[in-house]
Amino acid sequence: MTTMGSLFRSEEMALCQLFLQSESAYTCVSELGELGLVQFRDLNPDVNAFQRKFVNEVRRCDEMERKLRYLEREIRKDGIPVLDTGENPEAPMPREMIDLEVKFEKLENELKEVNSNAEALKRNYLELTELKHILKKTQVFFDEAMYPPNLPYDQDVYFDDDEQVNLLTDTSLHQLKHIGFVAGVILRERIPAFERMLWRACRGNVFLRQAEISEPLEDPATGEQVYKSVFIIFFQGDHLKMRVKKICEGFRATMYPCPEAPADRREMAMGVKTRLDDLNTVLSQTQDHRHRVLVSAARDIRAWMMKVWKIKSIYHTLNMFNLDVIQNGLIAECWIPVANLEDVQLALRRGTEKSGSLPAILNRLSTQESPPTFHRTNKFTKAFQTLIDSYGVANYREINPAPYTIITFPFLFAIMFGDFGHGIIMALFGAWMVWREKPLSAKKTDNEIWNIFFGGRYIILLMGVFSMYTGLIYNDVFSKAFNIFGSSWHPAFNNSVLMSKELTLDPGNKEQYDQYPYPFGLDPMWQIANNKINFYNSYKMKISIIFGVIHMLFGVILSVWNHRFFNRPMSIYCEFIPQLLFLCCLFLYLILLVFHKWTWYGAGGDPSVSPNCAPSILITFINMVLVKPYEEPGPVCSYYMFAGQFGLQRFLLIVALLCVPWMLCAKPFLLHRMHKQRTIMMQANGGEGVVEEGGGDAAAAAAVATAEEHDMGEVMIHQGIHTIEYVLGSVSHTASYLRLWALSLAHAQLSEVLWQMVLRIGLTTSGLAGGFLTYAIFAVWAFLTVAILVLMEGLSAFLHTLRLHWVEFQSKFYGGTGYAFVPFAFETILDQAENAGPEQ
């Protein structure tokens, strides 16, 4: 009963004061976090976050979280899986924080030391590898007897001592005296700019040879694979040597010593190879040790994270408490559902038993403050409650539209989306998400679109099921009809009909129509009729108005439950009754005319009740509002649907018009009279207040009386705004429900166009080519059906249904100006922290 009551109306809340001993405050808050049914109020709103009592503990938690984030990044960098065992450890005791800090500090230092050593080894390994490639590539350069015949530089080299040597002569390289060289490694993409700079800075007086290193090298700082090239630069003179080295440093090229003698180079190459083998062994051992440390941490890091998050949230909550210096305790204020007061008491008892201190004291306070709104939901009702809360959280104890939306939302959606085939697709998708609910919810993802679909899986399932039902009513399956029970139409297919491919159904033709309707839904013959659009237009437009008026009437009727619950009899007499009368006298009468026309007029009977004599309901309603009498069209037909219609319509119009001043003036007048009576009674009592009965209306009058001046004009303006909004809204909202008709026709026509212009091409092609063409065209048709008719049209119908509920339905009774109950719950805190984790 508690769950059902809280679904139809929010839970009754109690403001409580909590006295905790300092020794038991941590454990008690921890137990309340596990329970998740207490919303604490901040009793220190003016105190800076850095000046609160437990700020040091929060900082320690932040530091532990930083270390764990560092460990987590290293674990993910190595591709080690972090297993989610589903374990939910309890919040550790405060004394255990020191052990956790020591453990995390040790792990962080060990990992940083290993990473530092590994980076140094990798840097050394990179240098030796580059040196190995330099020795290998430069050996080829030195083994050449001379430069290739076509060198890139064809200018003479000038030296400081005015000695001129031409590098482009046929003299062998080893015959040139006083020539120096620099060898090194540079990033491959910098080679062109490096060559140009050498040419310009040295004026072509250097000779550059370079060769690419085929395999990529690992950058020890970033771990990325980079491609480099070996270069050797020949020059003559110390001046050019200094200039070349500065250019190399500017391009961040790494220079290595390279012996001139071949024997020295071979000896160095052998030494480099030996050192590389040794470094490989040490690097392998270092990586193994690092991997073992990370694997060990990966087994417990999620439990450690949850512990730290719980500790941090507990101290954040304790910072909202007041300090009781005299009693050496903490004082808190919190909102608790009345139905769970005993559960909170048990949780506090468990907390005090863990700490071994005096029991906590929970006192219920009286307050004029509006409590938070709390609706208990399950996995089925949560999505519908979210739709309502997206418009605005209900006022405290206000009637909740969510349980009614469970039926009305998918039904109004289905009126616009009525197609049995498209409904099956949507229902199967929703059923799959419901069936795979547990494994899909376990796979946490950041994809917002998928999270929205999965969160509304039950809404999608119901929308699909209801669309299947309305599709059967419309007898529409991918723009085609099912002839299950046998059609009541038997038209004659003569040559003219077959040649023109146009068939007009006439209900008055007894040779065509058997004069009894199809047992369920619409007759399949209408799908191929030439006058199908005219028939569907009339039918769908009328049912849109019928369901719209019923929906609005239901919303007005729900408002009386709010008035009765909050003890507002004045609102019942001055708002609910005139609103109901206004809607019934105009729009309920309109839909009664629709039913009367459907049942009274028909083909094949008396000429006076034939379709040709049936008056237009739209013209009838306009004449009713204009109080315009009808002119008799002839001796057979009548503009009146029944005897006394004109007098009844005039009476209903007068009642509807009287409801306008009733809504506008009655409540302000009664409030003004109550104010005057209260003023007289206060004067008779010598200015002292009086205790009045009357609930909400008395409170409203009291609020008016406490003002310095009784501003009757302000009350009239407020009431006038609501009256105008309701009167004009009744007309516009009724017209707004015509979107059910418009979207239903648009959906049906799009489906028919897709069939005629896509799938029909493949089905009408004969021969072997037709089979292959049908196969390909069916894929195109299926893709367009899902993408356009199910997804896009479904989203459009969903948004229109949402608007009909938010504006047309909920405006009749729903305030939506409350604030949600946000309890201190570890489950919510952990979910938010885990979702925020990947983003950091």
UniProtKB/TrEMBL annotation:
<dbReference type="GO" id="GO:0005886">
    <property type="term" value="C:plasma membrane"/>
</dbReference>
<protein>
    <recommendedName>
        <fullName>V-type proton ATPase subunit a</fullName>
    </recommendedName>
</protein>
<keyword id="KW-0175">Coiled coil</keyword>
<keyword id="KW-0472">Membrane</keyword>
<keyword id="KW-0375">Hydrogen ion transport</keyword>
<dbReference type="GO" id="GO:0046961">
    <property type="term" value="F:proton-transporting ATPase activity, rotational mechanism"/>
</dbReference>
<feature type="transmembrane region" description="Helical">
    <location>
        <begin position="411"/>
        <end position="435"/>
    </location>
</feature>
<feature type="transmembrane region" description="Helical">
    <location>
        <begin position="573"/>
        <end position="595"/>
    </location>
</feature>
<keyword id="KW-0406">Ion transport</keyword>
<dbReference type="Pfam" id="PF01496">
    <property type="entry name" value="V_ATPase_I"/>
</dbReference>
<feature type="coiled-coil region">
    <location>
        <begin position="54"/>
        <end position="131"/>
    </location>
</feature>
<dbReference type="GO" id="GO:0000220">
    <property type="term" value="C:vacuolar proton-transporting V-type ATPase, V0 domain"/>
</dbReference>
<comment type="function">
    <text>Essential component of the vacuolar proton pump (V-ATPase), a multimeric enzyme that catalyzes the translocation of protons across the membranes. Required for assembly and activity of the V-ATPase.</text>
</comment>
<feature type="transmembrane region" description="Helical">
    <location>
        <begin position="543"/>
        <end position="561"/>
    </location>
</feature>
<dbReference type="InterPro" id="IPR026028">
    <property type="entry name" value="V-type_ATPase_116kDa_su_euka"/>
</dbReference>
<keyword id="KW-0813">Transport</keyword>
<keyword id="KW-1133">Transmembrane helix</keyword>
<comment type="similarity">
    <text>Belongs to the V-ATPase 116 kDa subunit family.</text>
</comment>
<feature type="transmembrane region" description="Helical">
    <location>
        <begin position="767"/>
        <end position="792"/>
    </location>
</feature>
<dbReference type="GO" id="GO:0007035">
    <property type="term" value="P:vacuolar acidification"/>
</dbReference>
<keyword id="KW-0812">Transmembrane</keyword>
<feature type="transmembrane region" description="Helical">
    <location>
        <begin position="456"/>
        <end position="474"/>
    </location>
</feature>
<dbReference type="InterPro" id="IPR002490">
    <property type="entry name" value="V-ATPase_116kDa_su"/>
</dbReference>
<dbReference type="GO" id="GO:0051117">
    <property type="term" value="F:ATPase binding"/>
</dbReference>
<feature type="transmembrane region" description="Helical">
    <location>
        <begin position="651"/>
        <end position="671"/>
    </location>
</feature>
